[in-house]
Amino acid sequence: MNPFPRRGLLAAAAVSPFAALAACQVQGGADAAESDFPKRAVDFMVPFDPGGSGDLISRAIAKAAEEPLGQSLAVTNKPGANGAVGLKELLAGKADGYSIALAVKSLFAITPLAVDDPEAVIIDDLRIITTLTNEAYVLVVHADSPYQTLEDLLAADSVNYATTGVGTGSQLSAQLLFTGAGIDATDVPFDGGASAVTALLGQEVDAVSASLAETMPQVEAGELRPIAVFSEERSPFLQDVPTAVEAGFDVVVDQRRFIVAPADVPDETAGVLSLAFEEAREGAEYGQFLQDNYMDRWEVDNLEAKTHLSEAAAEYAALVEDAGLQLGDGA
C-alpha cells in the first residue's frame, strides 16, 4: 500500500477555467464549455453517524476538494440503514450537482441479502463521481477480555458481537466466521462503527468487526485487542494478527467508499466535480490522512467501480447461500 500521492499536485486553476476544462473533457461542446458550475456551496451528505470511518473520510476529502472546486463543501450527517436513508434523500432532490453523498460498497453488495426493500437504492440510480478508499475489517475484543486469540473466542459457549448495522460488511464478516465455526453467536447491530466500538469499550458485547479506522486508535491505546482480519493477506498495520483465512475460514470482506450524485446530473457538472476530487486525492494532506487512518486508496474509473460492485454482490450472495445464513435482523 502506498497511501501517499502517486504524482504531484495538478496545476492550480481558477474556478471558471477549471469548470470549462471539465466540461470540454466530458462533452466537448461549446455549450458545455460555458458551464459556470458551481456558483455556490455544494452539500455533501454523509449517510452515517459522526465519528465513524465514513464520516472521517468524507470530511477529509471535502476539505481537500474545496480549493480545486472553488466553493465550500458543507458536510452533514444523515445516518440510517447503511446509508440508504441519506441516499434516498439525495435522489429525492435536484440532480444539479449541488447535492452529493458518500456511498459504500456494502449497501449494494450486502444489504440486499439482509433487507427486502422494494424501494432500495440501486447503483444505476446514481452516478459515481469518484472512488476513494478500500478498507479492511478487523475482529477485536476488549483488552480485558478472557479471549486472547481467535481460537479462544471460537471455543466460547456463546458470543454476543456488535456490528455496524444490518446488511453491512461488519455483520457479514462476523456472521460468516461464527457460522463457519459452528458456535452460538448473537448479532447486536448498531447504526455505525463509532457506536458499535463504544459498546465494546463498555464491555456490553464480546467482540466487534469494524474497519481499521474505527478500531486502530483504541488498539494502539491498549483498550482493544485485534484477533483476526478479514482480508486475503495480513494487514500492513497489523502484521502480527492472522487472517480468518489462515484460521481456516474463507471469509474475505472489505468496504469500498465512493462519492455519488443522482444518475441524471448533467455531464459537465459531473465532470467539474470529478476533476475537483481527482485533484483533491493527490494532495499531500489527504494522503497523510489515509495513512494516519489505516485506509488504502481505491481509485478506479466508473465502469471498473460498478463492475466490482456487481461481482462482489454475486460473490457475497454465494457465500451466504453456501453458509446457509439468514442475515435479516442479525439476531
In words, what does this structure look like?
This is Tripartite-type tricarboxylate transporter receptor subunit TctC. Keywords: Receptor, Signal. Belongs to the UPF0065 (bug) family. This protein is α/β, with parallel strands linked by helices. It folds into two domains: 15-135 and 255-316, Bordetella uptake gene, domain 1 (D-Maltodextrin-Binding Protein, domain 2, 3-Layer(aba) Sandwich), CATH 3.40.190; 136-253, Periplasmic binding protein-like II (D-Maltodextrin-Binding Protein, domain 2, 3-Layer(aba) Sandwich). It is built from 13 helices and ten strands. Strands 1, 2, 3, 4, 5, 6, 7, 8, 9 and 10 form a ten-stranded mixed sheet that branches. α1 (15-26) packs across α11, α3 crosses α11 (267-281) and α3 (53-69) packs antiparallel against α12. The longest helix is centred in the C-terminal third of the chain and has 22 residues, at 302-323. The chain is globular and about 65 Å long. The relative contact order is 0.21.
Number of domains: 2
CATH topological fold name of the largest domain:
D-Maltodextrin-Binding Protein, domain 2
Tally the helices: what do you get? 13
Poorly predicted parts: 1-34
Fraction of residues in H or I helices: 40-55%
CATH architecture of the largest domain: 3-Layer(aba) Sandwich
Count of extended strands: 10
Radius of gyration: 20 Å
What are the secondary-structure elements, in order, as H or E? HHEHEHEHHEHEHEHEHEEHHEH
Identify the overall geometry.
globular
Q: Which class best fits the helix and strand makeup?
A: alpha/beta
Q: Oligomeric state of the chains?
A: single chain
Distance between the termini: 36 Å
Query: Which homologous superfamily in CATH is the superfamily of the largest domain?
Result: Bordetella uptake gene, domain 1
The first-level CATH class of the largest domain is given as: Alpha Beta
What's the rounded overall pLDDT mean? 89
Biggest beta sheet attributes: 10 strands, mixed
Share of residues in strands: 15-25%
Pfam families: TctC
Protein name: Tripartite-type tricarboxylate transporter receptor subunit TctC
Signal peptide: 1-22
Keywords: Receptor, Signal
